[in-house]
Amino acid sequence: MHASGALPAAPPDIEHRQFGRARPADSDVRRQCPASKRVEREMSTTSPEHVVVIGAGMVGLSTAWYLQERGVKVTILDRDGVAAGSSWGNAGWLTPALTLPLSEPSVLTYGLKTMFDPASPLYIPLSAKPSLIRFLLGFARHCTPGKWREAMAVFSEIGATGLDAFDEISEGSTISRIAKAGAVKGAGASGNDGGTATLGTGVVEPTRPAEPFLTGFKNLKDRDGLLHEFEGIRASGGEVEFDLMSAEEIRAMEPTLGDGVKAGISIHHQRFINPPKFMDSLADSVIARGGEIVTDFEVSDIREHAHGVEVVDAQGRIQGADAVVIATGAWLGKLARKFGVKRVVQAGRGYSFTVVPEVMPTHPIYFPAQRVACTPLGDRFRVAGTMEFRDADHPLEPKRIEAIVAAASPLFTGINWEDRQEEWVGSRPCTTDGLPLIGATRSSRVHVAGGHGMWGVALGPLTGKMLAASITGGSTPAIMRHFNPLR
Question: Which of 148, 329, 418, 476 lies in the 20 to 30 Å Cα band around 46?
């Protein structure tokens, strides 16, 4: 059974911060690598020479990478380490067809029925704080068909440019090509010893084609609900190529799917990554190009002065620079508020874990009705889901993991659900209107990049590219007007 259309659907991405079980610690300074002499700039005379990026996740590292493209020295600070937060435990989907605003009308309807049930895909604790109440009220105001169509038009405008940015950082761009041609001389670790640096040619870990990307359903009613959603997206300019699949067709493609799957949809021209491997590779690329990543640096304040900024940590250590980028995910508001960013950035926590099926799937699989996202990561299978609005630093709740297992287990066969590894919880930075915050604050020296909700990984490189151009006085795409942090 086949059909085609020009539509996308909205799954949960799953961006997480680890709690409960610590990831192996990095050293205070991940690596002290030779810092490259910068390329001769073709940019404004007001462009900063040195930028500190706070946050070593996908958004922060991508911003650093693109700043290097424009000849800027970068130092990345993080309280834990590379991808210690949301960029490590997510589903790793690069799916333009599915990159949609969270504030979809059905989310509000569904949430009102289930949000206080700890076993539901959407959960809000009864002890919600006033800041969460303010977020929920603002979010509810945007869960209307008209507001959703407005936000959807923005994501449609982005199109596949997010994938283009992934291609750029994989290939290596201006600075790498110039280095290969011998036009860039290196400097030693101190930046002035005259040594020769080796510049990376880009991110080695590849993006992988999801051909096709699969969605599964327990009944035709659930599938028809997604198709109805597709129709609304078509009206907003969204586009995706897809085929309908019978139960036999989707189970033949992925034998680990069980009898509980009664229908499917295959979506074409999407991709995915192995998040841990990709993030390590991105960090390696930034460092090889002269960047420095400093861990165990929990920023407590940003101070602006006549000649630049000072970033201060909880121990009183100071890192100076010409400008700073705040890319701290769900914690963005703590540092950005004093610079005029009033938008609430709320933690929308998701959970994930990995299992090893008897037959390892080869395609990402999404179950829209259950809000469960699954991704093959080589030797293990990541299963992720839920949206939990609560404090970003709240510990992992085992009941939320159990809820994902209860939703997913009837849909698969040959999986020991008790043998789970890498249980994670983490905070997706959500805004009330579903759009990220990207650009300068009230201070021309302080910039923010965050609030991507479920799509920080998918839109990280594009965010970094746009923000780096903005910081260095380059031309920026018109779409950035929607992401003004002061809106």
Answer: 329
Per-residue pLDDT reduced to its tens digit, 198-253: 445 699 999 999 999 999 999 999 999 888 877 877 777 778 889 999 999 999 99
Separation between Cα atoms, residue 251 and residue 268, nearest integer Å: 18
Residue range 149-188, pLDDT digits in tens: 899 889 988 988 999 999 999 998 555 444 444 433 333 3
Give the CA distances from residue 144 to residues 50, 103, 432, in Å, rounded to whole numbers and listed in that order: 43, 8, 12
Lowest mean pLDDT among 44-58, 156-170, 430-444, 456-470: 44-58
**pTM for the whole structure:** 0.86
Measuring CA to CA, how many Å separate 5 from each of 95, 160, 264, 342?
Answer: 16, 17, 15, 39
Spatial distance between the Cα atoms of 476 and 465, rounded to a whole number of angstroms: 9
Query: Residue 159: exposed, middle, or buried by beta-carbon count in 10 A (0-12, 13-18, 19+)?
Result: middle
Residues in CB range of 22: below 8 A, 6 or more apart = none
- Report the alpha-carbon distance of residue 257 to residue 419 in Å, rounded: 18
Element (H or E) spanning 439, and its range?
A: strand 437-440
Q: What is the 3-state secondary structure (H, E, C) of 368-393?
A: CCCCEEEEECCCCEEEEEEEEECCCC
Nearest to 461 by CA among 161, 155, 76: 161
CB atoms within 10 A of CB 291: 26
